Amino acid sequence: MAGQSAHRKPRSLIERAADHYDFRSALRGNAGDTVEPMPSAFEPIPAIEQPLPPFTPDIVPVPAPVVPLPTSFVPQVDAWSGIRHPIDREKLAQVGIIVPDSEATETSEEFRIVKRRILSAAFEEGHPKDRGNLVLVNSAHPNEGKTWCAINLAMSLAAEQDMDVLLVDGDFAKPGVCERLGLPEGTGFMDALVDPYLPIEQAVLRTDIPSLSVLPTGRHVTNDTEFVASERTRQVLDRLVAGHPRRIVILDSPPALAASVASELARHVGQTVLVVRADRTTEAALRDAVNLISACPNIRLLLNGVKFSSSGRQFGTYYGKTAS
């Protein structure tokens, strides 16, 4: 026995462990309490009773950039800029228009009376009333003297000591104001109606008469009535007088019975001077013209071309100059 034990092979660790543990039972699923589980080194994560709300990043809306609307509708137009254009005084005298700083004539005296009526209806205690500082000069038919009267009225008003006068040529089909005054044509009234980005004050021509400026007709368009009928016209005219309580605008318009523009311009003014040519304008034409411009609340008649005065008016002669 001793010899046999001396030559016995040494037992492996597994064999020796089998003497203490029943591996066969463990392999059959009956390990049970035989093998203790290895303790975990980590604590279990506690269960969350209420789930956290989903994460939503704060989104701050970025407003779209505000692009200002094109408009000349700033509260007021400052004093006109640009060079002063000389008025052709010799041409004025040739066609019987009042020459600034000249001696009194029959024409200048007559328009002194006319302008007093206009000023009375235009201003109240030094301030404009009912758009009365916007005055339309009109006639029933062509060649009745409306442009001649518009220029003379503007010249007479410009002689006032505290008045600022703007003469606007609104006869888009047949402009004549600039030609009679010897002024250049260019950008004008219609351009401001067509192009909302055009500052209207840039189109005004200053003259060498400090208180008188002129606005030409501007470009020629085929749908002038439609442009004048728009709200843009009222806005442009309001811009021309805003902030200037002693500014008066005289608009020379087409004849009422010859172009529909006249009736649309009448909607935007507070006064209309309807020129009636003596021995030429018929009563029917006069009634029709008044009806067409009836949107204007104050219409006055101006009799032009009178050669005989039943009352014996002789304006001009009193100042030492024979009436022409």
TrEMBL record:
<dbReference type="InterPro" id="IPR005702">
    <property type="entry name" value="Wzc-like_C"/>
</dbReference>
<protein>
    <submittedName>
        <fullName>Capsular biosynthesis protein</fullName>
    </submittedName>
</protein>
<keyword id="KW-0547">Nucleotide-binding</keyword>
<dbReference type="InterPro" id="IPR050445">
    <property type="entry name" value="Bact_polysacc_biosynth/exp"/>
</dbReference>
<dbReference type="InterPro" id="IPR027417">
    <property type="entry name" value="P-loop_NTPase"/>
</dbReference>
<keyword id="KW-0067">ATP-binding</keyword>
